[in-house]
TrEMBL record:
<protein>
    <submittedName>
        <fullName>TonB-dependent receptor</fullName>
    </submittedName>
</protein>
<feature type="domain" description="TonB-dependent receptor-like beta-barrel">
    <location>
        <begin position="205"/>
        <end position="591"/>
    </location>
</feature>
<keyword id="KW-0675">Receptor</keyword>
<feature type="signal peptide">
    <location>
        <begin position="1"/>
        <end position="24"/>
    </location>
</feature>
<keyword id="KW-1134">Transmembrane beta strand</keyword>
<keyword id="KW-0472">Membrane</keyword>
<feature type="domain" description="TonB-dependent receptor plug">
    <location>
        <begin position="50"/>
        <end position="155"/>
    </location>
</feature>
<dbReference type="InterPro" id="IPR036942">
    <property type="entry name" value="Beta-barrel_TonB_sf"/>
</dbReference>
<keyword id="KW-0732">Signal</keyword>
<comment type="similarity">
    <text>Belongs to the TonB-dependent receptor family.</text>
</comment>
<dbReference type="InterPro" id="IPR012910">
    <property type="entry name" value="Plug_dom"/>
</dbReference>
<dbReference type="InterPro" id="IPR037066">
    <property type="entry name" value="Plug_dom_sf"/>
</dbReference>
<keyword id="KW-0813">Transport</keyword>
<dbReference type="Pfam" id="PF00593">
    <property type="entry name" value="TonB_dep_Rec_b-barrel"/>
</dbReference>
<dbReference type="InterPro" id="IPR000531">
    <property type="entry name" value="Beta-barrel_TonB"/>
</dbReference>
<keyword id="KW-0812">Transmembrane</keyword>
<dbReference type="Pfam" id="PF07715">
    <property type="entry name" value="Plug"/>
</dbReference>
C-alpha cells in the first residue's frame, strides 16, 4: 500500500470527505428521480435535491438493475446534456461530451475518488464496471471551486454497491446477441448494529463485431470480431464506532481485455486495469462541527498490443482530504484541505514523471425561507503548472412550493495532461491549464410526481489545448505540430427536462438545443450535435413492467475542420421486467429495435438490432 494511506491507521476516527455516501436515497427509475433524492456531489455534503442550486440528475439502483445496458456509457447516453462517441462496440475506446465540453473536461469520481488517466485525460469509461454500481449522480456545470482541476462541464460520481439493510444476497445472469454473457453475485447488509459490508463480483463478455468499417482504409480496417472480457470486484465496509464517529473502507478493481482495429491481420487489443481504494472516517467534534478525513488511491493502467507496437502506460493518483462542516443555524460553512499526487510510468521515453497539487477550499450554503444561496472558492497550487483560483456564486428563489428559479456564475480549469506537456514531438512543457467562465439560469417545477426543468447556460473557454499543425514554440523538435494553448470556445445551450406519472404510466424526456462552437475558427466542435434528446415511457401492470426509450441526435462532424459529417440518428429500445417472485425477476431488452445503421465516429461500426435476457435475484 502506498505510504499516503498510512496516516489513516492513526487518524481513522476522524473521517471521510463524503460521509453520507451510503445514505443517498433513490426514487422511481423512469420518473426523473431527483424529487425525493439526496444529492452528495453538488456540495460535497448530503443535500435534498430540491435545495441543490446546480442542475443535476440521478440514475437509480432500480434503473441500473432493470436497464440491461451493456456498459455505463450506454446508460449515460440516456441522460440529458450528454452525448457519446465510441470507436466500435462496447469495450472499445469511448468518450462523453457534457454540455458540449470534451471528455477531459468532465471530472469522474468513484466513491469520492478521482479516476482517470493523467496522460490522455478523462476517465477510461470502458473499464468502469456497470455491475458494481449502486447509483450515479450527475451534476452539470463548473465545480472546480469544490473539486479543482477538470470539473469544467460537470462532475459524474459513481457509487458502488451500498452496505445498508438486512443481510441479503444478490445475483444476476444474462445472455444476449453478439455472444453477450453477464454474471454477477454479491452479498451485503449489517452484521451487527455497528458493522455493515458489501461484497460483489462480476464478469461480462461479448464476442463483438468488427470495430471498423471498410471505409476506414486498408491500414486500419480488419474484418475480425472485436470483443471484450471485463472482470470486476468491489468491497465496502462501514463501522459505527460510537454515536458520533464512524469509519469505513471501499475497494474497486476491474480488468478489461478489449480488442480493437489498428490494421489487417493482427489481434490488436488493450488490457486495462482500474483500481480504487479508500479509507475514511468522520467524527462529530461538537454540536455544530463535523470533521472528516479521506485517504485514497486510484490507478489507471493500460497495456496495448497492436500492429504498430506494444506500450504500457500507468497512472497512479494518491489523495488526502480533510473536510470540516460547520453548521450555523440552517447554513453550512465548509472548509477543505486536500493534497493530490500523480505518478505516471510508461514505456515511452520522456513521459514518465510526477506532479503534486495542494488545495484549500471554502464554501457557504445558505437557506432563508424562500431564498437559497451558495458561494465557494478554491485555490490549487501545482508543482508543474502553477496556481489557479476558482469560484462559484449561486442563488435560488422559491416562487411557490412547486416553482423555483436559479442563477449561477462559476469559473473552472482543466490541467494539461502529461501527453500535452511531455509526449515526444507533441507535448510542450510550458503549456498552461485551460480555463472557463460559466453563467446559467434555470427554472424548475416540482409537484408530486411531476418535474419540469429548463436551464440556459453559456460556458466560455479560453487557452484550449489543441493540436496545431505548426508548433509556434518548438519548431525544431516538433516538425509536425504540437499541443498548444491557442483556441477559444463557447459551449452554450438550452436543456429541457420533463417527467411525470399518469396512472400506470411513467413518462420522461429531455431536449438539448446547443451551440458548441470553436470561437477561433467559427466551426462546430467535433462530434457534437446542435440538437439531441431522449424520450421514454413505462407501463406497469401487476408484476409486469414494459418500457420504450429513444435516443435522438442531429448531425455531427467527425473532424475539427467540419468536413466529415456524421448523419443524425434515432434509436428505439424496448425493455420489460416480470417479477416471478418477490426476489426473482426476469428482464428483457431489445436495443436498436429498428436496426438503425449509424455512426458515433467516422468509419467505426455500432451495434445493430440486438437482444438481451436475464434473471435478477435480490434486486428490488
Amino acid at each position: 500500500m502506498n505510504s499516503v494511506l498510512k496516516p489513516l491507521a492513526i487518524g481513522l476516527a476522524v473521517a471521510a470527505a463524503f460521509p453520507s455516501v451510503s445514505s443517498a436515497q433513490t426514487a422511481n427509475a423512469v420518473v426523473a428521480s431527483t424529487a425525493s433524492s439526496v444529492i452528495i456531489t453538488a456540495g460535497r455534503q448530503a443535500q435534498a435535491a430540491k435545495d441543490v442550486l446546480a442542475d443535476n440528475a440521478v440514475i437509480t439502483a432500480e434503473e441500473i438493475a432493470q436497464s440491461g445496458a451493456a456498459t455505463i456509457v450506454d446508460l449515460l447516453q440516456q441522460q440529458r446534456g450528454i452525448e457519446i462517441a465510441r470507436n466500435g462496440g462496447p469495450g472499445t475506446n469511448s468518450a462523453l461530451f457534457m454540455r458540449g465540453g470534451n471528455n477531459s473536461q468532465i471530472l469522474v469520481l468513484v466513491d469520492g475518488v478521482r479516476v482517470g488517466s493523467s496522460t490522455t485525460g478523462g476517465a477510461t469509461w470502458s473499464n468502469i464496471p456497470l455491475n458494481q454500481i449502486d447509483h450515479v449522480e450527475i451534476v452539470y456545470g463548473p465545480l472546480s471551486s469544490l473539486y479543482g482541476a477538470d470539473a469544467m462541464s460537470g462532475v459524474i460520481q459513481i457509487f458502488t454497491k451500498k452496505t445498508a439493510g438486512a443481510l441479503s444476497p444478490t445475483a444476476a445472469v444474462g445472455v444476449g446477441s453478439y455472444g453477450t454473457r453477464k454474471m454477477q453475485a454479491g452479498i451485503s447488509g449489517s452484521i451487527s448494529n455497528s458493522l455493515s459490508f458489501a461484497l460483489n463480483a462480476g464478469h461480462d463478455e461479448n464476442e463483438g463485431f468488427s470495430a471498423t468499417k471498410p471505409g476506414a482504409g486498408i491500414y486500419t480496417y480488419n474484418p475480425d470480431k472485436d470483443g471484450y472480457k471485463l472482470d470486476s470486484f468491489s468491497a465496502r465496509m462501514n463501522l459505527q464506532i460510537s454515536r458520533d464517529s464512524e469509519a469505513g473502507a471501499s475497494y474497486l478493481k476491474s480488468r478489461l481485455n478489449a480488442q480493437f482495429d489498428a490494421g489487417p491481420s493482427y489481434d490488436d487489443h488493450n488490457v486495462q486495469n482500474l483500481e480504487t481504494i479508500t479509507l475514511h472516517g468522520k467524527t462529530k467534534i461538537s454540536d455544530i462541527w463535523t470533521a472528516s478525513l479521506q485517504v485514497a488511491q486510484s490507478a489507471d493502467q493500460t497495456f496495448t498490443d497492436a500492429s504498430y507496437g506494444q506500450s504500457q502506460i500507468d497512472t497512479r493518483q494518491s489523495f488526502i482530504t480533510l473536510q470540516n462542516d460547520i453548521r450555523i443555524d440552517k447554513d453550512v460553512l465548509q472548509l477543505i484541505a486536500e493534497r493530490r499526487e500523480e505518478n505516471v510510468a510508461t514505456t515511452i521515453a520522456g513521459l514518465n514523471g510526477q506532479r503534486r497539487t495542494g488545495s484549500l477550499a471554502a464554501s457557504y450554503v445558505l437557506k432563508r425561507d424562500a431564498h437559497l444561496a451558495s458561494a465557494s472558492v478554491r485555490y490549487d497550487n501545482s508543482s508543474v503548472y502553477g496556481s489557479n483560483t476558482t469560484g462559484n456564486l449561486a442563488y435560488g428563489y422559491r416562487l411557490s412550493d412547486a416553482w423555483r428559479v436559479n442563477a449561477s456564475y462559476g469559473t473552472s480549469f482543466r490541467a494539461p495532461t502529461f501527453n500535452e506537456l511531455y509526449y515526444p514531438g507533441y507535448g510542450v512543457a510550458g503549456n498552461k491549464p485551460e480555463s472557463a467562465k460559466n453563467a446559467e439560469i434555470g427554472v424548475y417545477y416540482e409537484l408530486g410526481d411531476t418535474q419540469l426543468s429548463a436551464v440556459y447556460y453559456q460556458n466560455r473557454a479560453t487557452d484550449l489545448l489543441v493540436s496545431t499543425y505548426v508548433c509556434p514554440v518548438e519548431t525544431a523538435t516538433h516538425p509536425y505540430g504540437c499541443a498548444y494553448n491557442v483556441n477559444q470556445a463557447t459551449m452554450s445551450g438550452l436543456t429541457l427536462g420533463a417527467a411525470t406519472r399518469l396512472g400506470d404510466w411513467s413518462l420522461r424526456g429531455s431536449l438539448d438545443l446547443q451551440d458548441p462552437k470553436d470561437d477561433t475558427t467559427g466551426l462546430r466542435l467535433a462530434r457534437r450535435s446542435k440538437q439531441h434528446g431522449t424520450l421514454a415511457a413505462e407501463y406497469v401492470v401487476s408484476a409486469l413492467k414494459l418500457g420504450v426509450e429513444t435516443v435522438l441526435s442531429g448531425n455531427r462532424y467527425d473532424d475539427v475542420a467540419n468536413k466529415k459529417m456524421l448523419p443524425g440518428y434515432g434509436l428505439l429500445n424496448l425493455y420489460g421486467t416480470y417479477a416471478l417472485t418477490r426476489d426473482l425477476s426476469l428482464i428483457g431488452r431489445w436495443n436498436n429495435a429498428l436496426n438503425k445503421d449509424y455512426e458515433l465516429a467516422k468509419n467505426y461500426a455500432t451495434p445493430g438490432s440486438n437482444l438481451y435476457v436475464g434473471l435478477n435475484y435480490g434486486f428490488r
